[in-house]
Please model this.
Amino acid sequence: MARISVFVITKNEEARIKRCLESVSWADELVVVDSGSTDGTERACLEFTDRFIYNDWVNSNRQKQFALEQCSYDWVLSIDADEVVSLEMRRAIKELLSGKPSKVGYKVLRRNYYRERLVDFGVMHSKPELRLFRRDAGRFAPRAVHDKVVLDGPSGQIGGYLEHYNITSLSLWVEKNIRYGKVSAEDDFARGKRVTWRHFAALPSLFLRRYFLWKGILHGVLGFYFSAMPVFFRLHQYSIMWELQQNTKAKDSDGI
Model:
């Protein structure tokens, strides 16, 4: 069977990293890249691997690219500290690598959890993520937010699930989205993207699709919450981008 490296990036993940690494303890190599944990993350990781490496944080894509470059084997699996590889996904990977894979990368469905409760509706429905790929065929995109693997070649999909225990507190999730919204807006603006009134006008339909067509309405308060959050995120992001555009116009008009 082809050998595989698994890599994870961490910072202060003592509470979650053990379950994550236990789910991939079958891999030939575990690489953990840490950006300065002050809790027991390092101690927990060293129970599973001696490949615990420090690297300064710039953004998640840069950090994951660095982690990818530390891997030894031809096939790599990228997971986060709040994710768990299901038994079905493990079996699918082993079956795939015991033969001759026809693709250079593979996606897997990722399911989201709120306080151990599966949230598989609305915007939180299971989505395929490209996580398994040949080390020489993939790299992370040079952008500030939202991890993305750029693949040189065709991709397929494997069975099983990547279980994502990402939401332990709704208020903390709001704070996280506020931070992401600011970084995402600044990154999009720097890459030449601009917003118009059409972006703002589309926000009500964004909510309605998720709440009614994607059946958020059937799931009570959580259904409303997870249908409304994407609207809040976009409104926050668009507002920052609009102000950046106004500041640029003001500087141009002043001849700066």
Summary: The CA atoms of residues 193 and 241 lie 9 Å apart. The mean pLDDT is 94.
